[in-house]
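Standup notes
- DV: blocked on the single-chain target, sequence here:
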Amino acid sequence: MGILKVENLSCGYNRRDIIRGISFSVKEGGFLGIIGPNGAGKTTLFRAITGILRPRKGKILYCGNDISGISPQNFAREVAVIPQILEVPFAFSVEEFVLMGRFPHTGRFEALNKRDYKILEEALNLTETSSFRGRKILELSGGERQRAVLAQGFAQEPRLLLLDEPTSHLDIAHQVQVLDLLKRLNKEKNLTVIIVLHDLNLASSYCDRLILLKEGDIFKDGSPQDVLTYQNIERVYNTVVVVRKNPIDLKPYILLVTEKEKCSRKDV
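- DV (later): unblocked, structure below
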């Protein structure tokens, strides 16, 4: 049985389904990327899996249990959610904010213990946020805040990590750093990762499996080599691309074709 199973899921907003009849499962220790153009349903699917958006039809099972029947605290003990944009209304320090990741594991009036603070240090070190642990979350740049959010997620010690565009506010160096870290935890700690990504080349390099969405349906589900063909990309994204093998990891690498290059080809 997979750690997460989506069965005939349909959901959306204002009586309109964005996701229609989607089914898939994710095995424990998997690294799944969800990709697709804007409006394909990536964020809607993400919100449904995290329990924010209730399905109109179908269900989502975590370890065989419908997530609608799991209490938020019990869900947070097993599953960490990293949203794309997080608004923090209060002036918490980074250290205070990351420590909140330990709350699902403590009783209502139970104080944090030595183990909680040890996990705090590990999370800060993993995400390289120790240097600004005393600064207020509201003072951070977008990239720094995103790393603090990741640190809080790691502090939860999850079995399943759900991430919505975690690299969107990061520079190239930190994009690679974060995804390398996720991959390492995936391999070393059997952490299951489900990640929504816009960057197809990052998705190709880091994900073991991809689900390509188009207009609320699964267009293709498989390995990066099976999903990221030029035919699939052109049909879903309605743009011309060239797909080559990355010389380093031999995964598909997508090259964009500009309008000028398209016209020059026609003239030849």
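- Follow-up: Residues 172-188 form the longest helix (17 residues).
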